[in-house]
Here is the input.
Amino acid sequence: MPPRRLVVWCPDWPVVAAARAAELGSLVPTAVFAANRVVACSATARDGGVRRGMRRREAQSRCPDLVVCEHDPDRDARLFEPVVAAVEDMMPGVEIVRPGLVAVPARGPARYFGSEAGAAERVIDKIDAQVGVECQVGIADGLFAAVLAARRGQLVAPGLSPEFLAPLAVDEIDQLADRLTGRQVAQRAELVDLLRRLGIRTLGEFAALDPSDVATRFGRSALVMHRAAGGREERPVLRRQVPPDLVVSEELDPPVDRVDRAAFAAKVLADRLHARLGDLGLACTRLGISARTEHGEELDRVWRCAEPLTPAATADRVRWQLDGWLNGRSGSQRPTAGVSVLSLRPEEVVGAGGLQLDLLSAATGEADARAGRAFARVQGMLGPEAVLTGVLDGGRDLRDQVRFVPWGDERRPALAPDHPWPGRIPSPSPSVVPDSPWPAVVLDVEGRPVEVTDRDRLTAAPSRVEVAGGRSRAVSGWAGPWPVTERWWVELLADGAGQTAPATQVPPRSLVRVQVVLEADSSTAEPGAPGAELEAGEVALLLVHEQGRWWVQGAYR
Here is the structure.
């Protein structure tokens, strides 16, 4: 059974921090925005109709008095330090999960204060008296269950975490995501969306799946969420033992009392720590940060992370923690001298295989900067259109769902991809999508062309398909047709249905989709010819019938 955890959660912390920094009242409707969308909003803003994920224009239209604040992780971490200090005054072993959320082992405080309920009541009173912010406390077996319990203000009895989690919506999985890293949040959102489309609605249904099936179908990172959904430890109990020589330290001469001066030392230490971890094939999931001032004051804090840290993420946490110590505390709690020694130590490590990195998130925190400089240099020689990056867009057509923009431009979707798109091709998407659809001919068993009737039905079952004038291949299976009609109302407006169609209105579009599986064929097309990407073995095609002709819009490998 996972160890008991006591979690302190400060609701809407990004908003609370922004309001305290701007000296706004608690009743002022406030929202924090990142990438033009609501990250968090106050209770009064929610009463006005503002919701998380909403665009700025829509939020301001619903609540005209809304105060807009930009997302600032440095501010959130700095102003959260007094809350952490208040908890640490009462309970040892404090771990920061993220600004607004801290966890401590529950066993010691429960014994000291007589009960878990007594410990929860004491910490709430302490934070209210010392910091003056609202918080909720939850206690359960394991960090994930304790976080969800804190969001509901519940104390879950020992051994009952699986029963507590089972009826909760599968959307709660995103509470495991490190909200300081948008990439992780996006990955959790994609998994939740996929689970819901598969009919898995609750954490209990997700936990009932076989772990090997979860790893095969959803990937390695989904196993962490699967274990948490079942009330177990997010990671296996047997973790790697932390080697004693992994602590890295730096003497700061002269001592630093400003965060901008300490940022460089933080980056150097982070690179050294991760170089040592990389040599041993390890990655850090709990980071200890220690500092000693010129007057001998000792400062120590532990950050817990949902996924292994990168050098850049480590440097960010060190900078935020120093900012909290030097600027976030008040009065007697603030250090009386500058920091003279800074140390980092991995409190918990896992195998480096748990750290999945892509091209722009390589293990050296400088890969993204090097890639960006190289891309900019290519654009300077060949023009902005020489380097493009993909943006996921909304739409029914495959070519509408991916749009390329020049490197450095804002990667904002033109149409919201998460909106419902009736008639959209369901997952999995074709692995090959040609720049221009390949012309095709579909024949029945007697060699006659297969057409589409006015009622969107096929005139005969497909028997053979010829792609781009090449040899025809036999059809071993097919499915469809699926008709799609877009902007059908334009014709009604043009016929005088009481309104006038705009002069720039996009014309209506009507098509029919069919999926076919072609048998293996030993012949190959000439390189560069349309359809040359098709494999000689069995292959599936997405066919589209539009304006009286058949086209290959995609291929499944």
Observations:
- The chain is about 30% helix and 25% strand.
- Confidence is low (pLDDT under 50) at residues 236-240, 354-365.
- Residues 250 and 342 are 5 Å apart (CA to CA).
- The two ends are 44 Å apart (CA to CA).
